[in-house]
Amino acid sequence: xxxxxxxxxxxxxxxxxxxxxxxxxxxxxxxxxxxxxxxxxxxxxxxxxxxxxxxxxxxxxxxxxxxxxxxxxxxxxxxxxxxxxxxxxxxxxxxxxxxxxxxxxxxxxxxxxxxxxxxxxxxxxxxxxxxxxxxxxxxxxxxxxxxxxxxxxxxxxxxxxxxxxxxxxxxxxxxxxxxxxxxxxxxxxxxxxxxxxxxxxxxxxxxxxxxxxxxxxxx
Length: 219
Description:
CATH architecture of the largest domain: Up-down Bundle
Subcellular location: Nucleus
Largest sheet: 3 strands, antiparallel
Mean pLDDT: 80
Order of helices and strands: HHHHHEEEEHEH
Strand content: 5-15%
Keywords: DNA replication, Nucleus
Pfam families: PSF1_C, Sld5
Number of helices: 7
Number of strands: 5
Main location: nucleus
Radius of gyration: 26 Å
Family: Belongs to the GINS1/PSF1 family.
Low-confidence stretches: 189-219
Number of domains: 2
Strand order of the largest sheet: 4-1-5
Distance between the termini: 42 Å
Shape: elongated
């Protein structure tokens, strides 16, 4: 049945958790592309047949006309479904740049099509360029934190790093009391993670923390 494969892609989007991605369904996506090519081929063939019979394409109402209309409308429907599938995934991919940062965890990258990886890369580059030109960091939390300092536990050895006016050795499982602005860069890079009550974190930062904990645990 025409359109069944395309509707399957939209059902995947509808059933997925908000703000999350399921793996890109290359098999079904390619099947829909092939179906579109077949519709176009059949449409062109029927139109040529009518032209060869010297029939007026705009006024003739025979089986070839209705067959061409079915293939044309089916092609347009598949096109809309493919665009909706890509658009919804692109929206989520854009949100990852703000929630996670410029480097995506391996488990998320595995779910992306190669074109989506390139899209995320270009989107991140555009944000970086804009921030540089405007001289303002758009990635920081919009809501000021209640406490400028947080306690963090290091999940992986990072080594000696310079933080403002002092340096600190970030070794695995060590605990530190750091300025929030210093710690956030490592939260985004899978380094240190808060080890205290999530109520002390802004919602956006806590969401990042939860994703990183799951990511680290999965490895």
